[in-house]
Amino acid sequence: MTMTDAELAGQPAAYWTGVAYEALIAYTRARQADHGFTQPQFWLLRNLSAHDLSPDGRGRTVDELRRAMRGYLRPEDDLAAEAEVLVERGWLRVGEDDGLLWITEAGEAARLDLKACAPQIRSEIHAGVDDADYVTALKVLQRMIRNTAGVAGSG
């Protein structure tokens, strides 16, 4: 059913942002699975890499990583289980003395390979959406967040 602009203007933003969030996450995770990895695995590698999100490249516990990712983890994400998979693949290692997770050279190479998948996934999601329209949509959402006393992050 196609709605008129007037009907769309009366739609609840919270409903549509929730639908969009679920659809985009499901799509992204399915495409990542097609490439043999999960989104939480990619985040683990990113948060342990000195060449990405880790400020110092030091090892971290699963709890420290969970805290670092609290803004984007989903309730069903099991970082301990995901880390085990990465250890089995040789992409992470567990420190003998401290039990910290560390990214390996193979893990860094995998992070770069996984990162290379992102532009294609983004392109598929953005197909038919003009950059100017996308920017306008984000600005509108940021304004709504500010209007409701939220914090519009850099996302």
Question: What oligomerization state is this entry in?
Answer: single chain
Q: How many distinct beta strands?
A: 2
Tell me the major beta sheet. Answer: 2 strands, antiparallel
Give the structural class: mainly alpha
Approximate shape: elongated
Mean pLDDT over the full residue set: 94
- The helix tally amounts to 8
Relative helix content: 55-70%
Unreliable spans: none
Rg, Cα atoms, Å: 19 Å
Query: What topology, given as strand order, has the largest sheet?
Result: 1-2
State the order of secondary-structure elements, H for helix, E for strand.
HHHHHEEHHH
Strand content: under 5%
Span of the ends, CA to CA: 32 Å
What do these coordinates show?
With 155 residues, the chain is mainly α. It is 59% helix and 4% strand. It contains 8 helices and 2 strands. It has a two-stranded antiparallel sheet with strand order 1-2. A hairpin with a 6-residue loop joins strand 1 and strand 2 (101-103). The radius of gyration is 19 Å and the shape is elongated.
